[in-house]
């Protein structure tokens, strides 16, 4: 059986013509240049602005490529503007929020998809209903809960727990994980049950190993979401020593810091997630591609 060839706008015979090949090469080269400039241009400009004098940034923003480098801006942003401490707080918040998200989402999805209690459809419907509520609606009751935790009667204000705990209540992650768990063949769980495995062993030995792609996607999405979260950390973390970089940068902009130091702080805050995505992009894209189900 002959293999079907991939078809395009231009036929294979036309592609072999010298004139068509030339124009195709020019168009592809121009498109590649546009993509590189639009994708890397802002990042490269921010990198150059972070080591340029403030006067040059203000007077001629596009002429800073020829200005002398002032590497002291990075040191001032890291130590003087306390961006290093804010980045450390951001990492702590991102790790804690990701763990909270994984624990709550995996437990809820396993309950609804594998254990399937009689009241499971009602709980699943309630979780789906929360997706239609704007996040701002829950800010006031959630903030009041943080100020006076039920039963414990303690305040989580100015603690990392005030950011970690609400991050676990993600209806989107529960729905995505439940759909993935539903695609795992039931024969695997039934075979494990026959071998004497309980729910905890089924989760750890069967479900989680098969769910590594979607778990990787959720981890990356949780880290990125926590990294750029602004409003909620600003409300519950009033202590500057605990604030993440997303809250510290606007405060730095409203202060008396030079513009060059502000640009250095911005560059330091964006280069870390860019590097992380560049390192783990293969795992992320593979996880997105295989998140639709498991082959039986």
From TrEMBL:
Residues of the ABC transmembrane type-1 domain: 87-280
UniProt KW Cell membrane keyword: yes
Principal location class: membrane
Membrane topology: Multi-pass membrane protein
Domain of life: Bacteria
Parts of the chain that traverse the membrane: 23-45, 91-115, 122-147, 159-181, 202-227, 259-280
UniProt GO BP: transmembrane transport
Localization per Swiss-Prot or TrEMBL: Cell membrane
Name by which UniProt lists this protein: Multiple sugar transport system permease protein
Species in which this protein is naturally found: Glycomyces artemisiae
Lineage: Bacteria, Bacillati, Actinomycetota, Actinomycetes, Glycomycetales
